[in-house]
Design goal:
single chain; 346 residues; alpha/beta; Rossmann fold; five-stranded parallel β-sheet; two-stranded antiparallel ribbon
Length: 346
């Protein structure tokens, strides 16, 4: 099989040591990644049963990026900007599973009050600045968030203003104008932002290596004098460490980081995609690098959590996801008389 430069780059990345992994961190990461996976599996079930409608893009396989990045940041202090593949980002940011599932069912109890659906999750309380249906849309929003943090500190003399913003987007976004314009402005003003590229090798049906003159996206940071870093996006510990380095730079006033996470989605582009373009050999290759199984292996080797406890956690999460579905199915639809509510500020 021609695995392409994507897999070759992974093989050349240094091995990540896990000697400093403690039980508390391991529990947090395992719970978050498992919740993301089980939640998305349940979404697929509901979609194919005709209970969920519209475009639904799942995150299976990329959990190490969401858990590694958001898990290293301060919830309800730092900010996050997502894409149309936003369910798991919302969960990692602390949005309750019931609110996320309700939004997917278009219910009033959803985090966007049933107005956004799968691709437009938003939660002011949890500092989630939204999911965006068009690629690149969220990057300027994230830039504005980072600018606000810096402006409060420099112009308004608020020394407590040190929030960092993470902007998530895919490899298909990295030849768009918003990407380059925002990188330039972020570096020019040393804004506290992390540009997180979830390079899953495919932009809908276009292979990344066929769509760009230089497939190593992290190197594009060099054009702006910005720090760029390449990381194994199937290894949550590697992603977490790289994010911690980027956060330290951002909070200390050193500016942005372009973080390219080499990952892979286990399902098609959306649940409407028959996924016939990718070879079974390629999918099998990446399935062996399942990020949850990788973390579980480390946990067992270090004897941080017993196998029985891991199974118990999985059962608790399955219960949480099932309760989220029941809650969403029984929740009220938005009131038609309030059609224009939430469009303008009160």
């Amino acid at each position: 099989m021609n695995k392409g430069s994507h897999a070759e780059r992974l093989n050349h990345l240094p091995e990540r040591e896990s000697s400093d992994l403690d039980r508390e961190t391991a529990l947090k990461l395992f719970k978050d990644m498992t919740l993301g996976r089980r939640f998305e599996d349940k979404c697929a079930e509901m979609y194919y049963r005709g209970k969920m409608f519209g475009f639904v893009h799942l995150y299976n396989g990329q959990e190490a990026v969401s858990s590694g990045v958001i898990g290293a940041m301060k919830l309800k202090h730092d900010w996050f900007c997502s894409t149309y593949r936003d369910h798991v980002h919302a969960l990692s940011a602390g949005v309750p599973a019931k609110e996320v599932m309700s939004e997917l069912f278009g219910k009033e109890t959803g985090c966007s009050k049933g107005r956004g659906g799968s691709m437009h999750l938003f939660s002011k309380e949890h500092h989630l600045l939204g999911g965006y249906a068009f690629i690149g849309e969220g990057i300027p929003v994230a830039l504005g968030s980072a600018f606000t943090s810096r402006y409060k500190k420099d112009a308004l003399k608020d020394e407590t203003s040190d929030s960092v913003t993470a902007a998530f987007f895919g490899d298909g976004t990295c030849n768009n104008g918003q990407f380059f314009e925002c990188l330039n402005m972020a570096q020019l003003w040393k804004l506290p932002i992390i540009f997180v590229v979830e390079n899953n090798k495919w932009a809908i049906g276009m292979a990344h290596d066929r769509a760009t003159s230089d497939p190593e996206i992290w190197k594009k940071a060099n054009a702006f004098g910005m720090k760029g870093e390449e990381v194994d996006g199937m290894n949550v510990l590697a992603v977490r460490e790289a994010t911690q380095r980027a956060i330290q730079r951002a909070r200390s006033g050193e500016g942005p980081t372009l973080l390219e996470c080499l990952t892979y989605r286990f399902r098609g582009h959306s649940l409407a995609d028959p996924d016939e373009l990718r070879s079974e050999e390629e999918k099998d290759f990446w399935a062996k690098r399942d990020p949850i199984k990788g973390l579980e292996k480390v946990i067992k080797e270090k004897k941080l959590i017993s196998n029985e406890e891991l199974k118990s956690i999985e059962k608790e999460i399955d219960k949480e996801v099932n309760e989220a579905v029941d809650f969403a199915l029984n929740a009220n639809d938005p009131d038609p008389t309030e059609l224009t509510k939430y469009i303008w500020a009160d």
